[in-house]
Amino acid sequence: YVRLERMPLTSNGKIDRASLPEPTAENIQPAQDFAAPSSETEKTLAALWCDLLKVESIGRDDNFFGLGGQSLLVMRAVSRMQKTFGVDVQLRNLFERPTVAGLAELIDAMRWVADSQVPSREGPREEIEL
Fold this sequence. Notes:
Blueprint: H1 40-53, H2 71-85, H3 91-96, H4 100-116
Helix pairs in contact: 1-2, 1-4
């Protein structure tokens, strides 16, 4: 958020959107206190988002869409997460869990499930009578 002393108004008393300042790294006020990513998954995910969103740092509770994420970036983010983490992250996952912490938790769960599955044996199977 950009903090303003007062909103610029038009002569009709409506907000003068053309007079609003552009958000920059210097004038943005964080919505909440910064909490650094803690797990390896959170750190990797935050670095990936920093690259995509062109920001310097992302906290674990920062919202992808609040940082400027939009439809094209969502598709690029999902593709990069699939390649980076080796799991089937879906578009809806980012909409349902738009924070680093929330999405990292889901990715860790997906990786745990993938790692715990026993691969099936190839070849003929032995028949068992019941």
